[in-house]
Amino acid sequence: MSGLVSNLNGASRIYAVFGDPVAQVQTPALINPLFAEHGADIWAVPFHVTRGNFETAWRAFAAMPNVAGIGVTVPHKVAAFRLCDRVTPAASEVGAVNSIQHAPDGSMHGALFDGLGFVRGLGENRKRLAGASVLLVGAGGAGRAIAHALAENGIGRLSVIEIDAEARDFTIEMTNRVARRTIAAEGNDTLSGHHMLINATPIGLKSAESFPVDLTTLEPEVLVADIAALSRETELLKLARERGCPTSDGRDMLKAQIGLIAGFAAGHAAGTPLDGA
Hints:
Blueprint: E1 13-19, H1 27-37, E2 42-48, H2 54-62, E3 67-72, H3 77-83, E4 86-87, H4 89-94, E5 99-102, E6 108-111, H5 114-121, E7 133-137, H6 141-152, E8 157-161, H7 165-179, E9 184-186, E10 196-199, E11 223-226, H8 235-242, E12 247-249, H9 250-265
Parallel strand pairs: 1-2, 1-3, 4-6, 7-8, 7-10, 8-9, 10-11, 11-12
Antiparallel strand pairs: 3-5, 5-6
Helix pairs in contact: 1-9, 5-6, 5-9, 6-7
């Protein structure tokens, strides 16, 4: 990437990536080569934006015409949704966004690619979704997006663990509405009977002992996904791999959606990759 910095000039546009923390964010490293490959004079740059100054930062970047858009990660996906001028249908259902296009008229158009990215990132394991019983830990912006995508992909049952009762109930109601039948309910620490375990919280970065699910019954046929795993393996995924489980991590999810994020930042319609394919 260092050889490409010479191309940065006054006509370049910025795709800001907001997070708290932000050191772990992989979007710039993945998306900047894609911008360069397709001749888009856009640069993704990470910014450490805390909860307390999020709205101030949002207003400042939205006021600058050379900002192509904003990408948001933990913990800003729901807050960003509330500030968008308009959002895509999926984002509206979920109540969260992870990519915002700064339109020529100055408006902020939010989209959500997390759910689609998660499902695509499963690769061959995507076939496991049909009729599956899934235990989801975390119903924040990413967790909600994943629940939405799971409902659209025909899972049989979703158990949701979330300490925020409002977020949990929202996710359960939204999932049942999308599925058009009752498939989602509050979960507990029991993994038995589930075909898939998904962690959509930062808990997996810590010891597996702190995880709110009894992992002693984890069997090799259970798919374990931990979207917190980006720059390194989490303790949860380490344990899963020791047990012989198929796994998926945050990079699988991010790589599957990065072309869509790049296309949206470049001004394409939501769902259109930068290469238009």
